[in-house]
Design a protein that fits this description.
The chain has nine helices and eleven strands. Helix 6 runs parallel beside helix 8. The chain has a six-stranded mixed β-sheet with strand order 1-4-3-5-2-11. A three-stranded antiparallel β-sheet has the order 6-7-8, with no helix packed on it. It is an alpha/beta fold. A hairpin with a 2-residue loop joins strand 9 (219-226) and strand 10 (229-233).
Length: 320
């Protein structure tokens, strides 16, 4: 549907006015003219739905007007979720229908709370919040008093959204960067990702302040390089299990469609279906050739291949 605002005219404005009238936001007799009264009704409707009350009718407002179900839910996982809220201005407090899950890893340390704290400190050049983050983070093993391995942290309710993809690829037919971010639920796994190897055999992650060495037992060595990298820090067993439980719960609660397909190394290539907004389960690497999150670790692939059968056995999904 077209984006409508004050000054717009035509049959879609008539439809807008009829929908608003039907839900008790009076615009008067539908005349196809988006004037001051229609703008006021749009803002009132948007405010009632938790949307940004700017009087501009985009995809989110159209979906709400047409009574598409926008689900909220309570967590029902076999693992605990820690609410670790960002300030409201650090994400978009707009309720959006979800149809996609995106997987990332942090390219950083083990603690999800530290990652969230970093998002809160990030600012634009003008000093404003960046609004970059994900709805969930999964920690990894630490050597401190508290073990974060597999711990799930939630910085904001997944019915809202924040930027996490960072698409700026004009040579591709991108669905729309903001829309892809808004209609997806993003999950970060705490993991350094791609590693380098010294002549001595030690593996390390390069940072601006120096090298961070990763123990040999945490190394995943791929059979052949992927995107120029062969060595990665492993996603732990607990992280993969927490990710499995979280994905299943999000699919159940948000009716996110998934295909009965085989996940393999090729799944981690650039995918035009992802760029063009096809629902399902994707990773950051499906829309960014310059990223390595997530990488084709065999244990991660094995887990992804269990999702469809689990949901089918539960009768959450059925064969067409």
């Amino acid at each position: 549907m077209a984006l409508l605002k004050k000054g717009s005219r035509g049959s879609q404005v008539v439809e807008l006015q009829e929908l608003l009238n039907a839900q008790g936001f009076d615009t008067g007799t539908p005349d196809g003219i988006f004037g001051r009264g229609t703008e006021r009704s749009v803002k009132d409707f948007q405010a009632s739905k938790g949307l940004t009350a700017d009087g501009v009718v985009g995809n989110m407002t159209w979906e709400s007007l047409r009574n598409k179900p926008i689900k909220t839910y309570e967590f029902n996982l076999e693992v605990d979720i820690t609410n670790y809220p960002l300030k409201d201005e650090e994400y978009y407090k707009e309720i959006v229908t979800k149809d996609t899950i995106y997987l990332h890893h942090t390219a950083g340390g083990a603690r999800p709370d530290y990652v969230i704290d970093g998002w809160e400190r990030d600012k634009t050049r003008g000093g404003n919040p960046l609004r970059v983050g994900t709805a969930f983070l999964i920690g990894r093993k630490t050597t401190g008093i508290k073990d974060f391995d597999g711990a799930i942290y939630c910085p904001f309710n997944p019915k809202y959204w924040s930027h996490h993809l960072g698409l700026n690829r004009p040579r591709y037919a991108v669905f729309n960067n903001a829309r892809l971010n808004a209609k997806s639920i993003a999950i970060e796994i705490c993991n350094y990702g791609a590693l380098n190897r010294e002549d001595s055999g030690r593996f390390y992650f390069e940072t601006a302040s120096g090298k961070i060495y990763v123990p040999d037992e945490e190394i995943c060595t791929l059979d052949k390089p992927w995107r120029g990298k062969k060595y990665f820090q492993k996603y732990t067993e607990k992280q993969i299990e927490s990710l499995r439980l979280l994905i299943l719960e999000l699919i159940r609660k948000y009716d996110i469609p998934i295909e009965n397909k085989v996940y393999n190394r090729d799944y981690f290539d650039l995918k035009f279906d992802a760029l063009n907004g096809l629902p399902g389960i994707w990773t950051h690497v499906n829309v960014r050739e310059d990223k390595w999150d997530c990488f084709p670790q065999p244990e991660l692939i094995d887990m992804l291949n269990t999702l469809y059968s689990t949901l089918y056995e539960e009768k959450v999904i059925t064969e067409n």
